[in-house]
Amino acid sequence: MRKQIIAFSLVLCSLSALAQKENELWIMTYVKVLQPVYTMVDNNGSFEIDDSAPQDSSFLYNSGLMTFKFQAQNKAISHSWDGQERWTFDLDKEDIQLYGPRDTLFGKVDNGQIILSSTLDDRPTFYHFEKLDVKSLSTSRLIESKYTAKIENHILSNNQIAFTTDSTQAVVNKSEALSKVFFTYNLEGISAFEFDFYPEPGTGFEQELGTVYVFQDQKNVIKGIFFPIYDGLEEPKRKYVTFSPQGK
Predict the structure, then answer these.
(1) Hey, what's the signal peptide range on this chain (predicted)?
(2) Partners of 70 in the beta sheet?
């Protein structure tokens, strides 16, 4: 009986840990995909897979854009590029399953991360999330101003940044341009934008893509957190950028 009580208490603690306060979100930091590598042979001018050769595989990393907020009664809400979705979830120690109208996700809560997979994926894919404890920042407020991006040794350093929610506006950002406009997603409480830069040779910067989650910290400073992808072969590392309103 004592073991059952302890086990039940652990489950309750885990559920309580996921039932976040209103200003706490889990953000998708990156996606890890197992990419098969095949051996091809030339068969009379036509390339075919060599079934006799051992096939290999490697993990590739990519960017993602999604947030989760866990609520009481085993409910959760997600926001992504295609809007809001409501879920229910089950948690058994570190194992978690989320049930949505279009998909079922499953994975683990481990070492400050939630790592999920989807029943819809045709190859092993792992969506990494981490908790972001921030103050709310409405997208409508964000797009009211223009900003100067402050980050060391990065393409965005000292860029003049503007945000838009107008999906009909053509947004083209050259890497070398010091003034950039980003289409911004409203994720209820924070915003996010995607980037994909192809710097000219000799600039000292690599090709880079990612998703920047924009929020307001406890000191009311507007910041962005992102996990840039370079060659897709290395696990992305966290970076921060600060957006200072111009004229202030």
Answers:
(1) 1-19
(2) 76
Q: Coil, helix or strand for 11?
A: helix
What tokens were used for 230? 């370079």
Fold of the CATH domain 2-133: Lipocalin (2.40.128)
* CB-based burial label for 14 (10 Å; 0-12, 13-18, 19+): middle
Mean pLDDT in order along the chain per 10 residues (248 residues):
42 49 75 76 66 65 94 91 93 93 93 93 93 78 91 94 88 88 90 92 88 88 94 93 86
- The pTM of this model reads 0.82
Give residue 11's pLDDT.
Answer: 39
Dig out the tokens for 77 from the structure: 């809400």
Contact 76, 68 (CB under 8 A): yes
Contact indicator for 80, 86 with CB cutoff of 8 Å: no
Helices (H) and strands (E) in the chain, counts: 2, 19
